[in-house]
Design brief:
Layout lengths: L6 E7 L6 H12 L5 E7 L6 H8 L4 E4 L6 H10 L5 E6 L2 E3 L3 H7 L5 E9 L9 E2 L4 H10 L1 H4 L19 E3 L1 E2 L3 E4 L1 H7 L11 H11 L3 E12 L8 H19 L1 H20 L3 H11 L24 E4 L12 H9 L5 E4 L15 H13 L2 E2 L8 E4 L10 H22 L5 E4 L5 H4 L6 E6 L11 H14 L2 E4 L2 H6 L1 H4 L3 E3 L17 H4 L5 E5 L9 H10 L4 E5 L15 E5 L6 H6 L3 E4 L5 H4 L4 H8 L4 E4 L11 E4 L2 H14 L5 H8 L4 H13 L3
Parallel strand pairs: 1-2, 1-4, 2-3, 6-11, 12-13, 12-16, 13-15, 16-17, 17-18, 18-19, 20-21, 20-23, 21-22, 23-24, 24-25
Antiparallel strand pairs: 4-10, 5-11, 6-10, 7-9, 8-11, 14-15
Helix pairs in contact: 1-2, 5-10, 9-10, 9-11, 10-11, 12-26
């Protein structure tokens, strides 16, 4: 009967942009021979471009947009409602079904079967232990004493089935992990919806055990295979604590409060020794068990209503930029404002690399005045929708050439930051340092973890005391618990010093912000095309101004549009009627200006700074779908099929000419699709998992 009706593949997503495309691409081969089918993606209010990835990967997929994330079960139940009359194959977004898998699952349905689970493997082909026995207090104690793998070899002592032979033969099981499972229409109609109050974990356990008690048992079919990426619950303290506490809740619902007390005690006993050895996940589990609510709190809420737990570590970030006058697209700001949706964050505006001096620094007076204005703002919350995000500018003494004055300046900054942390009740924070001059401050500052966000080689900054800054960089590299790199080149060069403390954390992009706009701002709309455009800081140590002037000369019929604050005089371009410098524009308006570019350019200088850079605008250009031409530097080679890379002025001019003719490499859609997985939200989660995880 089941093979005669359609099968609906229901995939529940939440910020799944990095994994959903491969899940969808595997489905045509997996569904071959399985009969009539449809694919339904139920999205729990993702904000990382997940639904854009779905639309670009397979336009035939039905996408159901939910208004919030109230859990996996709620998403599955929504999928059930949109799959009327179908058997339903429930998938996580990180599942990769093998060819013919769905046909094999459907062939396993017979009288007494309500759910069929496939054989799951790790990406390397090893078995993933997905089969489970009914949870009991004895099995939880057995895993506490023997460990999950050893206890799993003995039925009464372990919940997880670990014997390899069990994964080679088909047969009935108590239940299986819910990453991939086919449930028949008869089972859905007889058992009803999945219990939504668990949010995550134990909801599939409860459903399969309830179904089995009514004659719709779970069947394991190893002929149906799938790769499951998975693994986040084992590294995320929050998810692990939810998994552990939901196990107690499940026992309470099935057996009553007295039995639940035994499961609670067994769970505490299981977690305590590991927590004592420093495991962040088990520490979180113990805290969650000791403060357990009847049901877990919602997974997400509007940022303005997020309440940060008193146990959550605060963050202090020593930024390389200044929130009040630099472009807010910088990685420090993007990462920290998202961390602040979950943790209390104090962003300390740049304390500088040098004191601006007449004759050496460009726009000397302007720099002094704008820093003074920033200091005068004291401590503020600039984002009403993110109340946990604070910004301060300490009064610095940026004389880094003198050790005595440097030490005095560090004490001054440290005292100011300490005072603010005390007022904001931010004891013992995780410190994120992006600027090397923060070393003198943080080495005497109480903190639980130090993360060096190595976004640039600051000792290559031409106006800085390069010897002093290089020494400070070395101290931060040696003294940090973790070093995050955005440049593979720089990470490789410093691997001998950082070793296993080094991690590559690529830049993200604000996918919701960087979308093409229907209407251009009036000033750029009035400029006739074609338009060769650049947005960002026009810094004399980054941008090749000779190349910009060459473009103005070579393309008199085109407009060269430059958007950004300039650190040197732009008078050299006054003689070119086709050069339009629009000066600084607010971050909120940048996507609308970028939409007006026919060719977006990255005209960088060939220097040590650029060699170790990873410009955020590269992903912003691509998110807008723009055709891009760039000078040559290591990180741009991550996109050789999307960006034209030119060595030398002549080659750059020719690449721009070709792009004006053919529209550039790839397509508008293809360029945006390439960066859809690179959300700042996912980057911030990676940073938090690393900073708060076990060392």
């Amino acid at each position: 009967m089941t093979s005669a009706r359609p099968v609906a593949v229901v995939i529940v997503t939440y910020n799944s942009a990095e994994v959903i495309a491969d899940c969808l691409r595997a489905l045509p081969a997996a569904l071959e021979g399985a009969g009539e089918s449809r694919v339904i993606v139920v999205d729990n209010a993702s904000h990382d471009g997940t639904t854009d990835v779905v639309a670009l990967t397979d336009s035939e997929v039905k996408v159901v947009h939910r208004t919030g994330n109230d859990g996996f079960a709620a998403g599955v139940n929504t999928g059930f409602a949109h799959a009327d009359g179908c058997d339903v194959l429930v998938l996580n977004a990180d599942i990769r079904l093998a060819p013919g898998a769905v046909k094999a699952l459907r062939a396993a349905v017979k009288p007494g079967v309500g759910v069929v689970a496939p054989k799951l493997t790790e990406p390397d082909g090893s078995i993933q232990h997905s089969l489970r026995r009914t949870p009991t207090v004895l099995r939880t104690l057995g895993e506490a004493v023997l460990g999950g793998r050893r206890a799993g070899r003995f039925g009464p002592l372990g919940e997880t089935v670990t014997k390899p032979a069990a994964y080679e033969r088909a047969g009935f099981v108590d239940w299986a992990t819910g990453a991939a499972w086919l449930v028949t229409r008869e089972c859905i109609e007889a058992i009803g919806p999945i219990e939504e109050r668990y949010l995550l974990y134990s909801e599939e356990t409860e459903f399969m055990l309830r179904a089995g008690a009514k004659g719709f048992r779970t069947y394991y079919e190893p002929a149906a295979r799938a790769v499951h990426l998975g693994g986040e619950s084992g590294t995320s303290p929050r998810l692990w604590s939810l998994l552990v506490t939901n196990k107690v809740r499940l026992h309470r619902e099935r057996h009553g409060k007295v039995a639940a007390a035994g499961m609670w005690a067994a769970s505490v006993l299981n977690s305590l020794p590991r927590a004592a050895r420093g495991s962040a996940t088990h520490k979180a589990a113990v805290k969650a068990l000791l403060t357990q609510r009847a049901w877990p709190q919602p997974l997400s809420a509007p940022a303005k209503s997020v309440k940060v737990s008193k146990d959550a570590p605060p963050y202090v970030c020593f930024s390389a930029q200044d929130w009040w006058y630099h472009n807010q697209a910088h990685s420090d700001f993007q990462l920290m404002r998202r961390v602040a949706e979950h943790r209390k964050v104090l962003l300390v505006n740049s304390i500088g690399l040098r004191m601006p001096t007449p004759g050496k620094s460009t726009q000397f007076v302007r720099r002094i005045l704008r820093k003074a204005g920033s200091v005068a703002k004291l401590v503020r919350r600039p984002l009403p929708e993110v109340p946990g995000y604070y910004v301060m500018t300490p009064l610095p003494l940026p004389f880094y050439g003198s050790e005595r004055v440097r030490a005095l300046g560090a004490k001054l900054v440290r005292a100011q930051v300490r005072a603010v942390c005390a007022v904001l009740r931010m004891p013992n924070p995780i410190v994120v340092a992006t600027i090397p001059t923060a070393w003198d401050v943080v080495q005497g500052f109480e903190h639980r973890r130090l993360v060096f966000n190595r976004s640039d080689r600051h000792s290559a900054f031409p106006e800085a005391d390069q010897t002093t800054i290089a020494a400070l960089e070395d101290k931060l590299l040696s003294g940090s618990d973790h070093v995050l790199y955005v440049s593979r080149q720089l990470q490789g060069e410093e691997s001998g010093l950082t070793q296993d403390r080094a991690h590559f954390l690529d830049h993200g992009v604000d996918l919701q912000h960087f979308r093409r706009r229907a209407q251009l701002p009036a000033d750029i709309a009035s400029i006739p095309g074609p338009r060769i455009g650049f947005f960002g800081s026009l810094d004399d140590y980054l941008v090749d101004f000779d190349l910009l002037e060459r473009l103005a000369q070579e393309f008199p019929e085109a407009a060269l549009v430059l958007i950004g604050d300039a650190t040197l005089s732009m008078e050299r371009f006054a003689k070119y009627s086709n050069v339009h410098w629009l000066d600084f524009r607010p971050y909120a308006e940048i996507p609308a200006y970028g939409t007006g570019f026919d060719v977006a350019i990255m005209p960088w200088l060939d220097n040590d700074w650029i060699k170790h850079a990873n410009p955020i605008k590269m992903k912003e250009y691509l998110a807008l779908g723009l055709a891009v031409v760039s000078t040559d530097f290591p990180e741009v080679h991550q996109y050789p099929e999307l960006i034209r890379i030119a060595k030398g002025h002549d080659a750059f001019v020719e690449a721009v000419r070709q792009t004006l003719t053919d529209g550039g490499l790839s397509t508008v859609e293809g360029r945006r699709e390439a960066v859809l997985p690179a959300s700042w939200d996912s980057r911030a989660r990676q940073l938090m998992d690393l900073a708060e995880g076990q060392r």
